[in-house]
Amino acid sequence: MDQTAAANVQPAKSAKRRRFAPYRKNWSGYMFLVPAAALFVLFLWVPIIKGVVYSFYDIDFVNGNTYVGFDNYKTVFNDSEVGVSVKNTLYYMALCLLIGFWVPILFAIAISEIRRFQGIFRVAAYLPNVIPVVVLYGLWRWIYDPVGPINAFLGKLGADQILFMTDTRWSMVSLVIMETWQQFGSGMLIYLAAVLSIPKDWYEAAEIDGAGIWARVRHITLPSIKGLIMLMLIMQLIATSQGYQSQLAMLDGGPLNATLTYGLKIVKYAFTRLDYGVASAMGVLMFLVLGGLAVVQFRMQNRGGN
After folding, report:
1. Transmembrane residues, as ranges (predicted)?
2. What is the pTM of this model?
3. Which residues of the chain does CATH 1.10.3720.10 include?
4. CA distance 274 to 183
5. Are 125 and 188 in contact (CB under 8 A)?
6. What does CATH list as the number for 79-305?
7. Cis status, amide bond into 22, omega within 30 of 0
8. By the 8 A CB rule, do 286 and 266 touch?
9. What is the C-alpha to C-alpha distance for residues 30 and 44, in angstroms, rounded to an integer?
10. Tell me, what DSSP letter sits at residue 158?
């Protein structure tokens, strides 16, 4: 019996060695991943875990933290401005979808149809992305000023002046237009790469059959990049749900909380009121929502890969 058991152990050990042989062979390569993995854990997962823990505490860096249970979450749900910020965030996401989502797609398709000087148009479309945000905000404050170029042009046409920064009907729309102008270049390059990867034979065959530009775009281009469009849609929803930078820098949530987004409300709780517990609770709630969107994105990405 002992000899039989020993004989069975040897194949098991050899099979285990074969299983881990690739890892032992490439152990030096895996060591290069350790610093990146350590930074990933230190600056991503540790703050996430601490944020969850802090959401149950009254944070006081002088006298020490006090456990308060779900009081921070109750504060979030009882704050009327949080409800306003959620509505504004959904409105902001809808505007970014209606105004900004289709711009890079249209530019990518238009540039792909250009036969000459295509590189110049690519660079020109991407240039707004490299403008520093400080310069960007100063530029658009001047553009939106009551005596700025837009209102000066409207005045020549005899139209009424538009108060982009102080009118609650225009404030969020103005920010979305500004961000669309700045950021569409990066998305355009992604779509352009996808469009240019479509076999040219398909377009040549369509042209031989007499298909025009719109017919080629409708029946070849858009169906070919449909998976990428859906993926970029989910990514934009995740990104815009966290938006607060332009709302803070340009209007600080005004006028009359018209641009107070959920992300900006978190910033105000944390750095204006210094209530890090409530801010952490709001962050946890956002994390749960965005986690659901990330799961949807992951499943769509796997479906597209299959």
Report:
1. 27-48, 90-111, 123-143, 180-199, 220-239, 276-296
2. 0.83
3. 79-305
4. 32
5. yes
6. 1.10.3720.10
7. no
8. yes
9. 21
10. T
Residue 26: the pLDDT is: 72
Write the burial class of residue 162 (CB in 10 Å: 0-12 exposed, 13-18 middle, 19+ buried): middle
pLDDT tens for each residue of 180-189:
998 898 899 9
How many CA atoms lie less than 13 Å away from 235 in the CB half-sphere? Answer: 12
The token pair that represents 181 in the structure block: 């102008």
User: Coil, strand, or helix at residue 71?
Assistant: helix
For residue 57, the SS3 value is: strand
* Residue in the structure block whose two tokens are 């540039």: 111
Which CA distances in Å does 299 have to 125, 145, 172, 240, 303? Answer: 32, 45, 32, 20, 6
Q: Across the strands, what pairs with 67?
A: 57
DSSP codes joined into one string, 174-240: HHHHHHHHHHHHHHHHHHHHHHHTS-HHHHHHHHHTT--HHHHIIIIIHHHTHHHHHHHHHHHHHHH
169 backbone dihedrals φ, ψ, rounded to 5°: -75, -25
Residue 136 one-letter amino acid: L
CB 74 within 8 A of CB 245: no
What residues does 57 pair with on adjacent strands?
67
Average pLDDT of the residues in 63-86:
92
